[in-house]
Write a structure and sequence with these properties.
Length: 272
């Protein structure tokens, strides 16, 4: 299609839009080849944006429904449930499976949100640049799932009670676990420096989780899931080319499930 003529006929600057479409096409081709998204549309930045947007909506919702300023610093349990918190009775009894994803975009307070987003901002771009955006979204979503299922096992067999869970930390531990195993396999002084840095970060975060009473079962589940992903992800160019169709399909599925889960959460606000 002649995009320039098309947009000129609409009364728009056809040349400018033609260049934009060419840029989008290059980015899409780069993603399919296992590269990273460029500009302002990296997966890491999009994830941060979604987290911030949902938290802002939750705060506005709470304030406009009479919950006051507590919605900003300490949202109540019902507000967290409305905005996608993981609560396994809702999943197992009511079929709200989307909570297995949306909980990773919900946070229990401004400090909780800020801490997790700072970690994602620091770690996410480095890993995304290393493995590509498609593999990155696969890693992020899969470790959110391994984290929440580890939390389920802990709640059933250890705690013997149901606990409401929110936060991106399961996926963040997944990124840390991935970096530890992946950079260990890569080898070399620089890679092992990254590995050791992540090991220290994991230890500090795990101890901090014990102090504040965080869901360390989910942290462990996310970390193990990420480490397994890092252990099987091909490192060499030939291996990445060979498994590119598999990881492209996996990434597309992860993106699809995430979008559908968020849409179903929004739908639960409308059709309840």
């Amino acid at each position: 299609m002649d995009w320039k003529t098309f947009f000129d006929n609409l009364g728009m600057n056809g040349t400018r839009w033609q260049w934009r479409i060419m840029k989008w096409e290059r980015n899409l081709r780069n993603l399919r080849q296992g590269g990273s998204a460029s500009g302002n549309w990296s997966i890491s930045k999009v994830l941060i944006g979604i987290n911030l947007l949902l938290y802002g909506l939750m705060v506005v919702w709470g304030i406009t429904h009479g919950l006051g300023s507590s919605s900003l610093l300490n949202p109540d349990l019902y507000l967290l449930l409305d905005f996608g918190a993981q609560y396994w009775p809702s999943v197992l009894t009511d079929g709200e499976w989307w909570r297995c994803i949306t909980y990773a975009f919900t946070h229990g307070g401004l400090i909780h949100l800020a801490f997790n987003m700072v970690v994602l901002y620091q770690i996410g771009p480095m890993i995304e640049e290393e493995i590509g955006s498609i593999r990155f979204i696969s890693l992020y979503v899969l470790t959110a799932l391994t984290a929440t299922f580890a939390g389920l096992a802990w709640q059933i067999f250890i705690a013997e009670r149901w606990i409401l869970v929110v936060g991106a930390s399961g996926s963040l531990f997944g990124l840390i676990g991935f970096a530890i195993s992946y950079y260990h396999r890569v080898g070399g002084q620089m890679a092992h420096t990254y590995r050791n840095h992540m090991l220290r970060w994991a230890a500090i975060a795990f101890v901090f989780g014990l102090v504040v009473g965080a869901d360390n079962a989910a942290h462990l589940g996310g970390g193990i899931g990420g480490a397994m992903f890092g252990w099987v992800l091909p490192i060499g160019v030939r291996g990445r080319q060979l498994f590119r169709p598999f990881f492209n399909t996996l990434g597309a599925a992860a993106l699809f499930v995430t979008v559908v889960s968020l849409m179903m959460m929004v739908g639960s606000w409308i059709f309840r």
